[in-house]
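Q: Joint fold for the lines below.
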Amino acid sequence: MSAIPPPSNPILFLSACEIAAGLKLGDFSAREVNEAFLARIQAVDGEVGAFLQIDREDILSAADAADERRRAGEARSAFDGIPVGMKDVIAVKGQPLTCASRMLANFVAPYDATVTTRLRAAGLIPAGRLNMDEFAMGSSTENSALGKTRNPVDLSRAPGGSSGGSAAAVAAHEMPWTLGSDTGGSIRQPAAFCGVVGLKPTYGRVSRYGLVAYASSLDQIGPMGRTVDDVAALLDLLAGPDPKDSTSWPDPPPVFSRDLGEAPTRPWRIGLPKECFGEGLDPDVRAAVDQAIATLTAQGCEIVDVSLPHSELAIPVYYVIATAEASANLARYDGVRYGHRAADVSDAIDLYFKSRGEGFGPEVKRRVLLGAYVLSSGYKDAYYIRAQKVRSLIRKDFTDAFSTVDALLTPTTPTPAFPLGEKTSDPLAMYLADIYTIAANLAGLPAISVPGKPTPAGLPTGLQLLAPHWEEHRLLRIARLLA
Amino acid sequence: MKFEAVIGLEVHVQLKTRSKVFASVGVGFGEEPNTLTDPVIMGLPGVLPVLNHEAVRQAVRAGLILGSEIPEVCKWDRKQYFYPDSPKNYQLTQYDEPVCVGGAVEIELPGPARNIMGEHRWVRLTRAHLEEDVGKLTHAGDYSLVDYNRAGTPLLEIVTEPDLYSSAEAVAFLNALRMLLTEGGVSDCDMEKGQMRCDANISVRPAGSSTLNSRTEIKNLNSITGVRQAIDYEIRRQTGVYAAGGQVVQETRRWDAEGGLTTSMRGKEEAHDYRYFPDPDLLPVRFPTQEVEALRTALPERVFDRQRRYQETLDLPYTLTSVICYDFGLARYFEEALAVYGENPKALANYIANELQRERGAVEGEGLLPLEDVAMRPADLAELVRLIDTGTLTKHAARTVFVEMFQTGEGAAAVADRLGLKAEPQDSGALEAICRDVIAANPVPAAQFREGNAKAINAYVGPIMKATQGKANPREIHEILARLVAASD
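A: Joint structure:
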């Protein structure tokens, strides 16, 4: 097992909240912070491959501007000048927005996503474009058409996906924190594989405007970092209603980073869904969950068994609904207005066939075809309509469970990070990597993955907590007990 | 065997809003290509639609005018097909929960002559749903250009039951629809600007039969002439097929205006599978009942209701109401004049339907001068008619005054004064002398009058007016004439 060497610059060991404190005290400047991270990227990203692109000059001039503001007493927030790595599926004006696809390899975003606008308003520096599975479809980042990302803990293994670059960059200390997106586990699963913290907020908590759509009813942007407090602080900057996203929740969010250490008025009741502890669960991961149970019990939590009877239907339901939405969402990539356009075409139909044939990778094609199929006349009732009905049942399972418990604890993934190449020829085996994470997206629930006890071989494991809608604060408080 | 046609229409009407239906960029016509666009209209990666509620309000207004039911909730679906004028390659539309359900439109069939009212009938509507318009393709040799300015303009698709039986009825329906929707401020329905376009579903069957045969759909008819000719052609074509012992094939056809014929576009087997599903980016719309009722109370009077009212309570003839009512601008002009002077609706209507229209046509430029550019306001016209009725202005002089008012925008009294055309109180002795002379010069009308033809003495009015330079009060002339003629018995 070969891991990348630990960093030598002490700044790189600091959490984002600690960097903020250091900037305030004048321990170091924003330029020094950003130079440290850029040097680290320079040193290790050749092996890790988390970044598709990084604009050094842009970042440093933004850091200087932040230092200038702080000197003038006009810092935009405590985090002014701190870089944040962006998954290459979130629009940052003037930067590439490739979705790790040949289709958009040369596309530059002409506008900012709402989260980008909010980060800028707080003085954060959107830094670099992070690798991912093409159009966020995949669980290992091996579906990227533009680069290969390795797990920094074991370079022979996958970083997970689709936000593999976002997780790897944090684990490799190349970024203090990053943004990912999660449609079926794409933040939590790579967080588990790389040993970092990743949060998928409640559907509607964070604006999707500027997030390139994969499956619109499931997609959420979320924060990834090395500590629960960092993730909470980053969520504070991201969350809130947005008139540009009709599915964003209209109520203003609470301050997630406040009172995270406060003890509950009565002991937390944590449910263990029995369906998540059956066949296929790696004993080392099981052991990590057992230790987490012990940790929680020791801190006064009550652990109870619960059932989510429709869990086993989550994967098939997901691959009907997500692909149906994807087939429409990806129809716009046709070579007419932007993106890859095939040369030498005879007419419009030929332009579509060739541009899409050349621009999309095999997994994207597979899902677009699946989605078109499940919506086709004659099949729609049996697939799409039925899947929506089962989705309601899955949602109800959680409502029932949360009537007796405050949160649910499951493994994030059935196994630790698998070797690169192990599942690339077996899509179904790859789909099972998301078996515990998908239900939260179908139900729209907030869920977090925090690192559990590593395996004896030293591979990270992930512990997943789920809470009722809009209860991210509770989720973060409980997650903190495990940190 | 005699055949009859059965026709249903799908009419696309652009709704009047300032911005597009799912984006904040403005709508317009004739702008530089691709200037009325933004990331949402161009379907860039990552953008999301946001509903313009004014478009829903306009659709509800249209539905109320057309007698539709307004369900409390309507929702959005994606209709998927690839075409370069569609930026997302799906269209946001309403599949199974449209904004308007049912309804009916009163139409007037062509009468036996232009000045005789035709039969009225009701055409039932199936539904009307709101959707986004697409861009416009221009083919140029071996390449095509696409302009997305029109993309995203709110479009109401109004679907009729198969209640029409000829091209004339289809045209009558479109005319009624245009009148109703322009009155309501919902759309300008200008077919030349693509604000109203139509698909026609046509089948033929033996006359008197109630079966429905295979139909064809003719796409994208964008002028009244096109609608008329395409339907007539298609009826002839289908009748010919049956007469020759063949079967009409269900298919989509296109109208070739230059060749004057319809040609096959795609058959039933190649029909699109649109793979509709609910749009996950937009929430269903709840339109509260009290808001529907508020819109209902603010609706304008429907065209044929107004026409009946004018004919029944104002005693206006069809020749006038068919001009004034069928053009909402003229109707509003008339109503405003009537509000100022309600004593003589017929004279007001006459001036509007004849003099006003003639003068608008006489202005240089194409077509009629737009009503909003007419300097003469309804209150001025009311004043002119009042001056005539009170004897201050003769009808003869009023013609000159009208033209001057139209050209300058001055008031009636001011123009009459300036031109010295006001009827002046005459020395009644002098006027009587003139009357005597005129009667003496031509005794025939006087004799006819005494034989019972009351109108005969009108023959004297002209010469008397001439002798007084048009300034005599016509009523006074009549009084004197009647007295003199009767006395000369």
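Q: Anything notable?
A: Chain B touches chain A through 30 residues (CB under 8 Å). The radius of gyration of chain B is 30 Å.
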